[in-house]
């Protein structure tokens, strides 16, 4: 006699069925279907989203048109306390939203050039306890272009040749928001430069992070680099640049990345402790607006148990900040 339903072991329904989890590449990123993001998601569903985030590093949800700033913040706050950007602050009327709008410079400039984050980076690594998770919502998306690419820096670390892994384990890097804007933005106007000084770097931070951090939730090791790195501790600029390029070349290798083609209403969530990302700047003058909330992070811990330190934090002198 075949087992009747009532005698089958009691396996609970998964909070997200397998068929709604779509891998987007071999090493990072899944799209999750049929979930309506909100601050009041049932706990089992939220726990599953959190578990998938730790596993896949980046999650993507289409058609979240119901989300406004407050609802995006409410969903983000399920992961922990939200933090505004340390120098730009929060969009008016929100507690922590950062807007990247290609038509708005000045007050709203992210410091990455008129809303174009086209440098490989991890968010806000110039402070010690930088955000652990970012939640980004597509608001205005160009008809073509404007994709974002993420890299899995834990997968990169795991696949480094052993001698490079050992080197990375032993290195520390100084990160700062006061990077060489003119070098990164050769076409920037004097006004752009002044806005950068006035907003993004009105307070300058210099923080030393281990190049390899141990993830506080998974125990995985990942690389902590990206465009806020100034130099490696104990190395000069020239040697630092070569080593940086070497490690970054592994991070930006297509095999370690996922690329998301945005539509308005999409939401991307990434584990900022084990990823870098890059907003592709290929849409000319087309309008693009995205809004981000970030969740307060932990101070990174190195493979030998030491923690990151902010070495320097100072306000720009009045003549630069004016
Ligand atoms: O514009 C994007 O797609 C990404 C912007 C970015 O770097 C961020 O929101 O942290
Ligand atoms: Fe970013």
From TrEMBL:
Comp. bias (Polar residues): 1-10
GO molecular function, one term: taurine dioxygenase activity
TauD/TfdA-like domain boundaries: 21-294
Enzyme Commission code(s) on record: 1.14.11.17
GO cellular component, one term: cytoplasm
SUPFAM superfamilies linked: Clavaminate synthase-like (SSF51197)
InterPro entries in the cross-refs: AtsK-like, TauD-like_sf, TauD/TfdA-like
Cofactor or coenzyme needed: Fe(2+)
UniProt keywords, alphabetically: Dioxygenase, Iron, Metal-binding, Oxidoreductase
Family: Belongs to the TfdA dioxygenase family.
UniProt protein name: Taurine catabolism dioxygenase
Organism annotation: Xanthobacter flavus
């Amino acid at each position: 006699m075949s087992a009747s339903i009532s005698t089958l072991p009691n396996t609970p329904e998964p909070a997200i069925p397998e068929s709604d989890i779509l891998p987007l590449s071999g090493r990072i990123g899944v799209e999750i279907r049929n979930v309506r993001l909100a601050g009041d998601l049932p706990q089992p569903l939220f726990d599953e989203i959190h578990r998938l985030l730790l596993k896949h590093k980046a999650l993507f949800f289409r058609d979240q048109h119901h989300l406004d700033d407050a609802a995006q913040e409410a969903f983000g706050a399920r992961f922990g306390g939200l933090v505004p950007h340390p120098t730009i602050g929060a969009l008016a009327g929100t507690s922590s939203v950062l807007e990247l709008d290609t038509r708005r410079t000045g007050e709203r400039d992210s410091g990455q050039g008129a809303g174009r984050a086209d440098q490989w980076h991890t968010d806000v690594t110039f402070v010690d306890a930088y955000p652990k998770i970012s939640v980004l919502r597509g608001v205005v998306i160009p008809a073509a272009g404007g994709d974002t690419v993420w890299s899995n820096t834990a997968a990169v670390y795991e696949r480094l040749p052993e001698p490079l892994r050992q080197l990375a384990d032993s290195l520390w890097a100084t990160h700062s928001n006061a990077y060489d804007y003119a070098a990164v933005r050769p076409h920037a106007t004097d006004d752009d430069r002044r806005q950068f000084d006035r907003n993004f770097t009105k307070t300058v931070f210099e923080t030393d992070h281990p190049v390899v951090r141990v993830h506080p939730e998974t125990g995985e090791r990942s690389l902590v680099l990206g465009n806020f790195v100034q130099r490696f501790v104990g190395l000069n600029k020239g040697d630092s640049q070569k080593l940086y390029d070497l490690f970054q070349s592994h991070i930006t290798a297509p095999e370690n990345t996922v690329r998301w083609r945005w539509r308005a209403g999409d939401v991307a969530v990434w584990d900022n402790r084990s990823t870098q990302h890059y907003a592709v700047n290929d849409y000319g003058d087309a309008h693009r607006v995205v809004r981000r909330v970030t969740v307060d992070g932990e101070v990174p811990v190195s493979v030998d148990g030491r923690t990151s330190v902010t070495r320097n934090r100072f306000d720009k002198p009045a003549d630069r900040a004016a």
